[in-house]
Write a structure and sequence with these properties.
Blueprint lengths: L6 E6 L8 E6 L2 H6 L1 H7 L6 H4 L11 E11 L2 E6 L10 E4 L2 E4 L8 E7 L12
Antiparallel strand pairs: 1-2, 3-4, 3-7, 5-6
The chain binds zinc ion.
Length: 129
């Protein structure tokens, strides 16, 4: 008995012609019933990241993306929030490939810009020494 317990749902993107899939694992039947992705798949409405966040998917015609977080002060500390959505949620610590930032290290109003830049082999210059 080495099979992983629980339930794995294979979601297939419902966008016409798209074949992207993703697997979601639920430990219990209750989680399976309440799981957003599982419900979307049952309804035939699950969408892959290409079709839920197309502006964030890097591509030849979308080689750079940028995301801005703003430092806000609340009664229980400082948090990073998505610019333009300063009333929603927040995190005291954010991280990704190549960066980490504690909100408490910076004054309220600080902007954190996270940029990704794609360079295809044909666009790269000579390597530097
Ligand atoms: Zn898709």
């Amino acid at each position: 008995m080495s099979a992983r317990r629980g339930y794995t749902v294979r979601c297939v993107c419902s966008f016409p012609g798209c074949k992207e899939t993703s697997f979601y694992h639920y430990d219990t039947q209750r989680e399976l019933c309440e799981g957003t992705a599982a419900a979307q798949q049952r309804a035939g409405k699950w969408l892959c990241v290409r079709h839920t966040s197309p502006a964030e998917v890097l591509a030849e015609n979308n080689p750079t993306t940028s995301h801005v977080l703003v430092n806000v002060e609340l009664e229980h500390g400082r948090f990073w929030r998505q610019e333009g959505h300063e009333q929603v949620g927040g995190s005291g610590f954010v991280f990704g490939n190549g960066y980490k930032a504690y909100a408490k290290d910076f004054p309220p109003g600080t902007r954190l810009t996270i940029t990704a830049k794609l360079e295809l082999p044909s666009q790269q210059g000579e390597p530097h020494e």
